[in-house]
Amino acid sequence: MKIVVFCGGTGTRLWPLSRKNTPKQFANVIGDLSLLQAMVARLTPKYKINDIFISTGQQYISEIKTQLPELPSENIIAEPEMRDTGPAVCYVALEMEKKFGENTPIAILWQDHIVKNPELFLNLLKAGENLIINGNKVVYIGSDPVFPTINNGYIQYGSVISEDTKYKIKIKEFISFTEKPDLGTAKRFLSSGCYAINTGYFISTPKTIIKYYKKYASDTLNKIKNGLFASCEKRAVDYILNENMSKDDAVVISCNFGWNEAGDWLSLKEAITD
Question: At a CB cut-off of 8 Å and minimum separation 6, what does 211 contact?
């Protein structure tokens, strides 16, 4: 499986630590590693560095080469322009299709997170990889919520479909996706016991991702294919793709693997103190 880590945000919510020219992903937020270096270090016990790719903006290429000298230069995917995560994911899917073919399993990950149980996280990735090899859906990786939050999306799941016996990961039916609900809704989601926090991580193939962009965001797909990336509407992948997915499009794997977002100071405080 190929891993694509998205590393293109400006991190304005962590100002003044994170600034436009030196965003949070390159800062040592916790410990001696930057958020980007920590994500790559988390992956390399089970994935070769040659199978890890970084999606970023042109302005950050030099810093990524400095922080990850072992990463092949050709594994840096430079977005033509910063147009938010919706166009960025579509662009990456098309690039990975060119490089490795339409049926290669790829994991979409983000660098601005903290994971306290990296072994369990890797087990989720491996279980998701096994699912993709044997199917053609999107596999969403969720984190079991421990308190209601209005800062993240939620993935509603249904009954257990099957289980990866090697990694002891249950595969659940996908129901729906809700981006950043109000507090009352978040409390209801938590008490129901059938929602996972959306980590933003998912596994699929270029063919399947492109198929869903064609189905749910054809304008974005066509503009990118025609070299008009700069004209794409700035929209997050959560709104442009995830909220439109149906039960037939995806499955869910989730557990408490110590996932926390480090996107703002409150989230960072929760990650450190929980």
Answer: none
**pLDDT per residue over 88-145, tens digit each?**
999 999 999 999 999 999 999 999 888 999 999 999 999 999 999 877 789 999 999 9
pTM for the predicted model, two decimal places: 0.90
Helix orientation angle between 206-216 and 85-100, rounded to the nearest 10 degrees: 140
pLDDT the model gives residue 225:
97
- Taking alpha carbons only, the member of 156, 215, 154 closest to residue 179 is 154
User: For residue 222, what are the β-bridge partners?
Assistant: none
207 pLDDT tier (thresholds 50, 70, 90): very high
Q: What distances in angstroms separate CA 188 from CA 29, 145, 148, 191, 234, one per listed residue?
A: 32, 12, 8, 5, 31
CA distances in angstroms from 200 to 88, 214, 222, 256, listed in the order given = 13, 20, 24, 15
By C-alpha distance, which of 252, 258, 42 is closest to 128?
Answer: 252
